[in-house]
Amino acid sequence: MGIRGERPGSVLADSGKRNGVRRQRFRRGIDYSGKVYAIDAQTGTQRWRFDPEAGSIRTSPTVADGTVYVGTTNLEAIDAATGRRRWQFETADSIRSSPTVAGSTVYIGSHDTRLYAVDTETGRQRWAFETDDPVQSSPTVKDGTVYVGGQDATVYAIAAESPDVDSRGSRVLLGTLGHHDGRTTASKTVDKRVSDTPDRADAGASNTNVFDRAEPAGQSTATANREPTAASSSAGADSVSFCPHCGADMTDAPGDAYCPHCGGQLRDD
Fold first, then answer.
1. What is the pLDDT of residues 173-193, one digit of tens each?
2. Is the pTM of the predicted complex or chain greater than 0.85?
3. Which of 12, 24, 88, 129 lies 20 to 30 angstroms, CA to CA, from 68?
């Protein structure tokens, strides 16, 4: 495999020092050959290659605590230093939702209509939450709540195992931005967590449901059902509070047609 320049969608990870030992600095990327590659960020040489041997890879890898998480038909946990499989969690269909790590749990959606919570150490299922259609969006965790959008036109807020956990790891965007109808799923996702109310919350969904899990099998009860609300309408109908491309705060330039941070188009003239 030859490497020339940067690969779009790859993740740069610098694992720094731990216990006085300098760990590897490398770039991980994926392609449709169904393999995961670890590439040295300085030299472009391949450090390792992982072949899941089951389905193609359609998700972005997430790196946390020395482990690379990626989805095929299974959720794979790969040792970031060696490229060897740590564990494998099987779902009933393909995975296009990128993994999200919070606390000691990794969350991932599947085309089998479920959102799974899996123990990062053992690879065992902690719970599964069932929706009416495939879950393709990538979950985000903030203050012990898992947020995810389903193809059943619903954004779900599901109680996680701890009220103190937030999303972490090296994946940059944990929310889905600007799909289908051009509205944003959630507020700033550049810092890997939902911290503010968005101008509009959607993800191709029309309502938001908040759930408390009754038992680990994923039986859940709706505690709230509300339409998304606008954070601010004082600047006019054509204004936006956050850039749908990079998540930047646009309150100081509500009427701009393009984002001053990333150059993305904010509205049609």
1. 333 333 333 343 443 333 333
2. no
3. 129
Query: Which numeric CATH code is attached to 1-90?
Result: 2.40.10.480
Contacts of 165 (CB under 8 A, 6+ apart): 102, 103, 105, 141, 144
Total residues belonging to the chain: 269
What's the first-to-final CA gap in the chain, in angstroms?
Answer: 44
Q: Round to whole Å and give the CA distance between 28 and 39.
A: 6
Q: If one looks up domain 108-231 in CATH, what number appears?
A: 2.40.10.480
Question: Which tokens sit at 33?
Answer: 């050959």
